[in-house]
Amino acid sequence: MPTINDSVQFLKGVGPAFAKKFEKLGILTIRDLLLCYPRKYIDYTQPYTVVSAPYDVECCVRATVLQKEPARRVKGGRVMNRVLAADDSGILALSWFNAPYAADKLEVGETYYFEGRIGGTLTRREISHPLVRTVAQVAACPFVAVYPGTDGLPAARHASCAHAALAFADQLVDPLPPELLTRYRMPAKAQAVRGIHAPKNADDLAAARRRLIFEELYLLQIGIFLLRSHGRRKTSAPMHPLDLGPFWRSLPYPPTGAQKRSTEEILADLCGDVPMNRLLQGDVGSGKTLVAAAAIWFAAQNGWQSAMLAPTEILARQHAATLADRLEPFGVNVTLLVGGMKAKEKRIALEAIADGRANLVVGTHAVLTDTVEFKNLGLAIVDEQHRFGVRQRGLLAGKAQSPHLLVMSATPIPRTLGLLMYGDLDISVLDELPPGRKPIKTWFITGKKRRDMYGFLDKQIAAGHQVYIVCPAIEENEAMGDLQAVTTYYTETACALLPNRRIGLLHGKLKPKEKDDVMQRFKAGELDVLVSTTVIEVGVDVPNATVMVIENAERFGLSALHQLRGRVGRGSAQSYCVLVSGTKNEETKKRLQALCKTTDGFQIAEQDLALRGPGDFFGSRQHGLPLLKVASLQMDLETLQDAQQAAAAVIQTADSLNAPELAPLKARVEALFTRQEVSLN
Q1: What is the pLDDT of residue 445?
Q2: Are the CB atoms for 190 and 169 separated by under 8 Å?
Q3: Is CATH 3.40.109.10 what the domain over 245-430 is classified as, yes or no?
Q4: Residue 124 near residue 93, CB atoms below 8 Å
Q5: 245-430 and 441-612 share one CATH topology?
Q6: d(C-alpha 368, C-alpha 392), whole Å
Q7: Which residue(s) pair with 63 in the sheet?
């Protein structure tokens, strides 16, 4: 008798051949099979009548067999078997090709449930190759689970194997403490797994789903709490309140209400008893750098050093220049530290950081190296936080005895994702644009109008403005169809249709120095057009750039398109974004047209989450968080909040889950977060 940890091939009905098919789905053991949940269910409890069944939709119809027609050969040499069934509303034709056994099993005068895609006409409906179940089968199991399939592994075989695996459900270790099950009235793990695979009724399925959704979000939230709250109980860099008036009065324009509100929240944290752990979230161009400058000024007046980590050297140089203009009049020394510096420059910078003369250090990953030693780092800031992992942020915070941490993001995150991803971070939101900024006009065009678009681009350049053109690929790839390749587009399209303009090429395969040189030439106005991949998504401000063209726009999520759009509109001139796509898909067209109607990044993020799921936000490069199997961040907000409260309670009362009774819980959390390279002790 196999155990739950044995290979799935030893399960009855599997064997070595199907075990290899299961392996393609990531299923190696019987446990893996049990924890691979159905992707949907066929609900037989509310069947349609023949006439009410929606056309071209998969659904279930209850009907009685009237007659079986003789088999006949049709075009292509196939043999068709047809059966007529009916109810009080109409007749349903059922057909099978080269499958006589399916029709033979049906008895005239008996009632069955037929499931499949409805075709035919309004008065005479038909289903090809329906799934057939008897009245007795439906009574025994009214919900039929549908599993993910792969080549050579039919969904029906997957289903039968999953049901065979239910005999091992009692061997599953339940990671949830018994008191949690009692408090939230949830079934045990084994019962929930049985209910998700073979629910007896709607209530049974709902209870199983809620329990497994809760477990998934609970474990995830505990892991996030442990990752992000490491060291929060340690002594922070103490600061005392100061009047920020001198800093605000030094600005050439007044700050927005959102900037002042966010700054006040940050300063309150800096004067608190525990280290700040805050996310500053703002749409593209909302003025996060100014808020960061106010926090750095405050820390410097309190006698503490600050460090700002940027994802690219060119962006680090831009931040250093901008912050020097704002802060050096107050005596705040700004020091740059990037990998491209000469050895002498780097040595001078390191000495200034070590002896405290550098009040602010702006740099790239170079700041994280062992050679960098701060005298008294009190504030660590991470810009474009989604470009850095948890481990990298931890290295920066580790440069001092638990400094205050501020992470900044220009990627608007929906509320549900914010609750999940930043469970123990306080969040400040910049939801206003600085005065003088005009909303970007966005158009969606098909490829046929591209030549007309180039006439518009030429006029913009003639008026003294600059243009971005973004393509999603670097080189031609036959497998990717008509996807625009940036190198080919540059030579055959951009240079051909704008023959008298200065055009640059930028992509990720260029060396860092080459990329910086191209970007600096564009910023300096030496290039009229920059043809690029998405490497410009996080880039320098070029106020003179007024047009963003995005080829094959259907390949990007709404949030990514919005992020790219934000590269223009940085000056006072009217800016434009042109989405180019030859897609025939109506849903895709609606999605792109929706972007034309709003510039609200948070609204766009909610739409993107609903359309594409959390994948865009949960990229491995961003967080390495475990993927959600059952939970829906759109539908399960209430359960997420319950799980978050329960996770916070166990973290506060337990010593990093080291209590013996919490061993199963700790083991499960550690198994989920092994990719993070962070100890949960």
Answers
A1: 92
A2: yes
A3: no
A4: yes
A5: yes
A6: 8
A7: 112
Residue carrying structure tokens 């695979």: 197
Mean pLDDT, residues 242-270: 93
The letter for the amino acid at 609 is L
* Nearest alpha carbon to residue 405 among 299, 260, 290, 539: 299
Please, are residues 9 and 33 in contact by the beta-carbon 8 Å criterion? no
CB 290 within 8 A of CB 439: no
For tokens 């309150």, the residue is: 268
Residues sharing a CB contact under 8 Å with residue 54, sequence separation 6 or more, in sequence order: 48, 118
- The structure tokens 């910078």 sit at 349
Query: Cβ distance 145 to 111 under 8 Å?
Result: no
Give the chain's largest Cα–Cα span: 95
The CB density around residue 83, as the number of other CB atoms within 10 Å, is 23
The CA distance from 485 to 483, in Å, is 6
- pLDDT (average), residues 84-102: 91
In whole angstroms, what is the distance from residue 165 CA to residue 151 CA? Answer: 21
Residue in 265, 234, 652 with CA at minimum distance from that of residue 403? 234
Q: Look at 110-114, 277-281, 316-320, 388-392 and tell me which has the smallest mean pLDDT.
A: 388-392
**Domain map (residue ranges) of the chain:** 1-45+142-170, 46-140, 173-228+649-681, 245-430, 441-612
For residue 325, pLDDT over 90 is answered with yes
The tokens for 529 are 């057009």
Contacts of 155 by beta carbon, 8 Å cutoff, 6+ apart: 146, 147, 148, 149
pLDDT classification of 623: cutoffs 50, 70, 90: very low
Q: Report the pLDDT averaged over residues 389-408.
A: 68
What is the structure's pLDDT at 678? 35
What is the tens place of the pLDDT at every residue in 503-553? 999 987 888 788 888 988 998 999 999 999 887 755 677 889 999 999 999
User: Tell me: the pLDDT tens digits for 189-204?
Assistant: 999 999 999 898 889 9
Mean pLDDT computed over 424-442: 78
pLDDT at residue 675 greater than cutoff 60: no
Q: What pLDDT score was predicted for residue 13?
A: 84
Domain covering 1-45+142-170 in this structure, CATH number: 1.10.150
- The torsion angle over the Cα atoms of residues 523, 525, 531 and 536, rounded to 10 degrees, is 10
CA distances from 141 to 36, 75, 369, 384 (A): 20, 39, 60, 51
* pLDDT top residue among 382 and 654: 382
What lies within 8 Å, CB to CB, of 134 at 6+ separation is 110, 112, 113
**Quick one: pLDDT at residue 583?**
86
Count CA atoms within 13 Å of residue 415 on its CB side. 8
Superfamily name and number for 46-140:
Nucleic acid-binding proteins (2.40.50.140)
Residues 6 or more apart whose CB falls under 8 angstroms from that of 304 comprise 237, 239, 376, 377, 378, 379
Name the β-bridge partners of 64: 86, 111
> Residues 84, 69: contact at Cβ < 8 Å?
yes
- Look up residue 88 and give its two tokens: 């009080």
Q: What is 441-612's CATH topology? A: Rossmann fold (3.40.50)
**What angle is formed at CA 590 by the lines to CA 547 and CA 450, rounded to 5 degrees?**
40
Quote the percentage of the chain above a pLDDT of 90.
Answer: 39
